[in-house]
Amino acid sequence: MSEQPLRVNFMSMPASPKVMFLNGPNANLYGLDRDGTYGSESFEGIQQSCLSHAETLGITLDFRQSNHEGILIDWIQEARLQHDALIINAAGLSYRSVPILDALLAFEGPIIEAHMSNIWKREPFRHHSMLSQAATGVIAGLGVIGYRLALDATAQLLTQQKG
Ligand code: DHK
After folding, report:
1. Residue among 93, 118, 126, 144 to mutate when testing ligand 1 (max atoms within 8 A of CB)
2. How many CB atoms lie within 10 A of CB 62?
3. Is the minimum distance from the CB of 23 to ligand 1 under 6 angstroms?
4. Alpha-carbon span 30 to 42, nearest angstrom
5. Per-residue confidence (pLDDT) for residue 1, from 0 to 100
6. Mean pLDDT of 63-76
7. Beta-bridge partners for 19
8. Rounded to whole angstroms, how far apart are CA atoms 76 and 108?
């Protein structure tokens, strides 16, 4: 079976939609443990890959990382006013942060929750993300491929929303 190319109708997307991609605690350490759960690619490499993929989709991407819950909440509130969609990997905060959930619930555009690892294959405390309740969709277990898929999904959701 031949692979279907991704079709995004750029005509019906907002002119260069703005997407915020938030990364939570310890994401800056990705790649340091080559045999680890998150693969060998550095955080900077992952960021670069997402930025170039976003460019091919016509998306203006704001890719950020913080180890601090309050900063992530401030950024989600900023996105509420300035961005069309949100992609978030809140890392360990996914399982316990009511304030991040509340901030996400106040965001009106599409939200994709992304995890590098398959959280359901790991320890039980990672099996329930509180944030999924606010997410349009969840992608997990595909590493940086999942991040690019999150961008593809966001582009398509924004197209549908417009059309
Ligand atoms: C990243 C983390 O840092 C963990 O705390 C989460 C998530 C999983 C990920 O798979 O990207 O449990």
Report:
1. 126
2. 18
3. no
4. 5
5. 43
6. 98
7. 61, 85
8. 11
Q: Which tokens belong to 149? A: 């898929």
pLDDT tens track for 79-110: 999 999 999 999 999 999 999 999 999 999 99
| pTM (predicted TM-score) | 0.91
- 120 Cα distance to chain centroid: 18
Question: What residue's CA is closest to ligand 1, atom 2?
Answer: 91
Ligand 1 pocket check for 116: Cβ under 6 Å: yes
Say if ligand 1 is within 6 A of residue 126 CB.
Answer: yes
> Residue 32: which pLDDT band, with cuts at 50, 70 and 90?
confident
Annotated catalytic residue: which of 30, 38, 53, 147?
Answer: 38
Q: What is the pLDDT of residues 128-152, one digit of tens each?
A: 999 999 999 999 999 999 999 999 9
Q: Is 83 a catalytic residue?
A: no
